[in-house]
């Protein structure tokens, strides 16, 4: 009885506390950012939104890098109760807008001239026909190499300029008792390397033909075989305990010098910085080595659903303005470890890796080496890009020949068409 | 209940049906309606969201042309058969041993049953570390001096599925033991005494009399374990996440991937239907024969 009464008092108190918050309009945002730095980065958006007089109702569905969130959204839409806004990766925003559930942000776009600030290669992911349907907040680069400087010095090696050099360096690192490459066996981690190899070995145009256009000739070409051959050599750089290893654990191995390198997107940078390591001095960051370097991008964007409540629609406008606000993009990305999606901002107070990324992005936009990262859904539609991951992962852990892998790739892509 | 009032009699007649009605409704909608819906989706062209057209068996062709699905099906058969056999074997032996009037039986029973109280996620994570060659068993044995000892199944695509069997057996054999133990306790002692008077040895008594008498317990264990085997999803997710590569993919992880990660809802529905048909093909004849015989027996 006593517990019941105190529970009632507690809930009454909780309601009293919750009541005043009802007064302002809240926009519910569905996203899958749950880690500490991600939440801290989101807070910059939340604060800016509050300054405009709107509340942020957090609807975080973590897990399966967004897979669980997609499931949650489907049931919300089926029930006719979509959230106000949602974080999108890859083609998700365009796909949902094709279903007719997204509203456009064209008026805001015209008033603020947002389109000119977004890289042209990114536009296909936020613009459906003439309609701007999502606003990009950040940009990650997927094809980075993160390296431990001390490990490189110990083995007496320099930053490799090609994959052949990187693979040859593996011998020296092994001789020095260091694991050359830290990674896990999850298909996506393997695919990150595969994506890099496709454009590093075959060039950006080959990447576009194979991973985006799904061109049969490119998929079954000798170049593709060469990509798999290189991937086989990369397998030799990895230790045996790589099963079920989380990417962050692999990053930790590079941080403590157990391993020398990791190929991973720039979300790995946060792990180095959190340990107080300095770019250039303690660790190195460089693009996956190639004579034809590329910038494989990932963006997070926020799209707005059609809702009945006019107040929420206004809140959506406010949220879009906040996301595209130069200061918010700056503050958000400093915490998140990415670079602003807007290309017209200064990144002078970012760390050296971010500056390098910002500069190489500008070059990549110029010379056509700006590529959507297939692993995270920015090349072909997911049913196709997943096939690349399947084949690369099976090839990586088995004794499959490159010929068989290419055949499996072609069959798999055709089966998914 | 008083017998004098006929109305209460009528209520008593209707009560079971009234009580059962809501759950029957829930099952009809929540299970059978959605089975039908999934079946419909599996013959449609659904990709990201359901679309209600008809494309025949296209999604099934697509499904069976996917190498990953073949891996998943083979894995399901390896996993389910080994899991069922080993779990029942271990559970039965433990139950028989515990049934020998030993001391501290209650405590031991709790110890063996305890893994069942853990979620598969916990089991999977723990076994992932135990089996990791750089952290777990191999490392310990190596550091004890046996340098050449190798136990790296979890990193080997051909062996990884067996490590999942190990973890699942560890989790579930205590549960099988509990059911068998209950069955053993239900056996009349006089039967055993009669056999002993006839001069039968203890192993013989168990093999020819007691284990056959456990048939209802076997039925429960098989039904419960096979559904654990087929719905196995979280254990794979926690232990190997389908890896190395796709080596430990099972139909349930395939289905989730196709439906929610790859915009292939039709293929996902087709794989779900295949799972359902597999379960039905095994369970229905078995249930039919078992239940029919027990009805005849009464």
From TrEMBL, chain A:
Keywords: Signal, Transport. InterPro entries: Bact_solute-bd_prot1, SBP. GO terms for cellular component: periplasmic space. SUPFAM superfamilies: Periplasmic binding protein-like II (SSF53850). It is found in: Periplasm. The keyword Hydrolase does not apply. It holds the Pfam family SBP_bac_1. Residues 1-23 form the signal peptide. Belongs to the bacterial solute-binding protein 1 family. PANTHER family: ARABINOSE-BINDING PROTEIN-RELATED, BINDING PROTEIN COMPONENT OF ABC SUGAR TRANSPORTER-RELATED. Part of a binding-protein-dependent transport system for a sugar. This is Probable sugar-binding periplasmic protein.
From TrEMBL, chain B:
Residues 73-288 form the ABC transmembrane type-1 domain. The chain crosses the membrane at residues 21-43, 69-98, 110-130, 159-184, 205-230, 265-288. Its main location: membrane. Keywords: Cell membrane, Membrane, Transmembrane, Transmembrane helix, Transport. It is found in: Cell membrane. GO terms for cellular component: plasma membrane. The keyword Repeat does not apply. InterPro entries: ABC_transporter_permease, MetI-like, MetI-like_sf. One of its GO terms (biological process) is transmembrane transport. CDD domains: TM_PBP2 (cd06261). It is a multi-pass membrane protein. It holds the Pfam family BPD_transp_1. PROSITE patterns: ABC_TM1. The keyword Cytoplasm does not apply. Belongs to the binding-protein-dependent transport system permease family. PANTHER family: ABC TRANSPORTER PERMEASE PROTEIN (PTHR30193). This is Sugar ABC transporter permease. It comes from Paenirhodobacter ferrireducens. The lineage of its organism: Bacteria, Pseudomonadati, Pseudomonadota, Alphaproteobacteria, Rhodobacterales.
